[in-house]
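Appendix B, example 12.
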Amino acid sequence: MNEHDIFTSVLGEVFETELDGLTAEITLDREHEFSDKFDRKMRKLIKRRSRSYFSLICTAGRRAACIAVIVLLLLANPFTVNAIRQTILGFIMDNYSDHAKVTVELDKNEQYSDRIETVYDIMAIPEGFEIEQFLDDETWHVVYYTKGNDGIFFFQCPVQLYNNSMDNEYSVFEEFKDGNRTYMLHYRNGDSHYTFIWNDGVYVFEVASNLGRDKTLELCRSVKQRE
């Protein structure tokens, strides 16, 4: 059992009560409407999330609760190691010992909007997947689809608002070119969870799933402007 597995096991035991409480708060009704309290939590979560633990999202019952607890644990620990900065595909990565802070490299001479004026969606969601959670407003467009233990994540935000913390201890980042589009690919060796990230100069997009690289790439190819 490696350190990641141990952490996951301990997390479930220590935060059992907290997870139960959070799960009760995020139950969807048939109209997929959330309370103001839940929306506030989701906004905070999305701004500072770590999908190195995407496998926890894709276990039944406590997806959002697990993400929230993990993010709080990460933020509770002060970072004392100086970051090693690098640039890849228009993204700036501040690399620490166990995570990378990812932002967009902005042109100081350009004007960037802080609102989503054009909404994009994954058009080729596989049969049987249903929306479990979503947030859709002028600054964030986020959707979780689930089918059993499988999950698909889609994210869109303006480039100047993108600020993500991602695991670099158990996973890797690499450049992945597909036709005219080049992605920053994030994954763990031997795992089926892949995250594709790209920046078109206006928005940042992320597509993640536990369906393997090829199927996740197919989802990326189907991302188009909402009519």
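Residues 63-76 form the longest helix (14 residues). Residues 3-76 form one domain.
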